[in-house]
TrEMBL record:
This is D-ribose pyranase. Its EC number is 5.4.99.62. One of its GO terms (biological process) is D-ribose catabolic process. The keyword Coiled coil does not apply. It comes from Paenibacillus contaminans. The lineage of its organism: Bacteria, Bacillati, Bacillota, Bacilli, Bacillales. GO terms for molecular function: D-ribose pyranase activity; intramolecular lyase activity; monosaccharide binding. InterPro entries: D-ribose_pyranase (IPR023064), RbsD-like_sf (IPR023750), RbsD_FucU (IPR007721).
Amino acid sequence: MRRGGILHPTLNRILTETGHTDILTICDKGFSVPQNCERLDLALVEGIPTVLDVLRAIEAEFVIDTVIVTEEMKEASPERYQQLATEFPELSFTVVSHARFKEICPESRAVIRTGDAVPYANIMIVSG
């Protein structure tokens, strides 16, 4: 039995199989996951876990090159964007439109769905 870190076996497998420059999407409860992507549904109830909860767990064990967020997050949920920037000052952030985000998503190695209900909470992490 593991002492700590990420305990979810599927998430561990996804992280292990993710290569340099691969994309992982961490999305809110309402995001439409593309059919061609592996989907890992971690949503338990509304708000649990959040995108930030999952990012915190992944960032502790995984090399992240860039975090992709949307312009709409900055506009509709500025508190969340500020929280990301404050908690992860060492990470590089790229801002794209929500439409562009949805275009990129099918390239994701996997999409991790959370119970997050914050508008436009979705992020992508690019493996370092």
